[in-house]
Amino acid sequence: MAHIHSYETRLALAEALADAVSETLNAAVAERGAASLAVSGGSTPKLFFDVLSKRVLPWDRITVTLVDERFVPPESDRSNHQLVATHLLKDKAADANFVPLFHADKTAEEAATIASQETCGIDEPFDVVILGMGTDGHTASFFPGGDNLAEALDAASTRGVMTMRAQGAGEPRLTFTFSALRDARLLALHIEGAEKKQVLDTALGDGPEEDMPIRAALRRAQTPLTIFWAP
Ligand SMILES: O=C(O)[C@H](O)[C@@H](O)[C@H](O)[C@H](O)COP(=O)(O)O
Prior knowledge:
Organism: Allorhizobium borbori
Shape: globular
Oligomer: single chain
Structural class: alpha/beta
Largest sheet: 7 strands, parallel
CATH topology: Rossmann fold
CATH class: Alpha Beta
Family: Belongs to the glucosamine/galactosamine-6-phosphate isomerase family. 6-phosphogluconolactonase subfamily.
Radius of gyration: 16 Å
Domain Glucosamine/galactosamine-6-phosphate isomerase: 10-220
CATH architecture: 3-Layer(aba) Sandwich
Number of strands: 10
EC number: 3.1.1.31
Number of helices: 8
Distance between the termini: 22 Å
Strand order of the largest sheet: 1-10-9-6-2-3-5
Bound molecules: 6-phosphogluconic acid
Number of domains: 1
Function: Hydrolysis of 6-phosphogluconolactone to 6-phosphogluconate.
């Protein structure tokens, strides 16, 4: 089940997504004094991050982490940690608590174990999860052909962070499991451009999840996926 919201411009999308995220985070803090936000990296979220960073929220009560991470240090331009530190954790959002997934001087597997331990203290489910999508139909680091794809997509897998290696992924990846993402209070997919709309339309059709892992979120998310799209 998915609800698609289309916007005239990418700025209108960023403002609407920031509204929905702010509402969910404010409600969580009002309800239990804390909130969590897991975001994806890549190029799409930059404008949204910049808009959200200016929102007046109880940021010191909000924990921000990454849906997935390239296995590179924050100094690398490929780092999602660097992307979030540059575009989101500034302005009003500078007071948020950030939990990275990458750990230096560790193997990817050791870093995944540490990241699972360090994120297990975040209330379950996440309040907000923002997914992106590649033109190959991957989301998070659930890449077609990924070495750990079956385990990553298995709803029965233990919530946590695992490694993923795949031809289309570049570096080894660290990614939350689908089981950790699928029941977020607000589960959003943020995509932009005509090409990704076509990829989404294909993903909404028949075919195995392994070919287009975004299908797991479209078909088996516990929370209906809210899709934000602009040309
Ligand atoms: O680390 C990553 O790359 C992301 O978490 C990934 O899942 C991203 O959302 C898609 O690859 C889309 O990336 P673009 O926004 O760059 O197209």
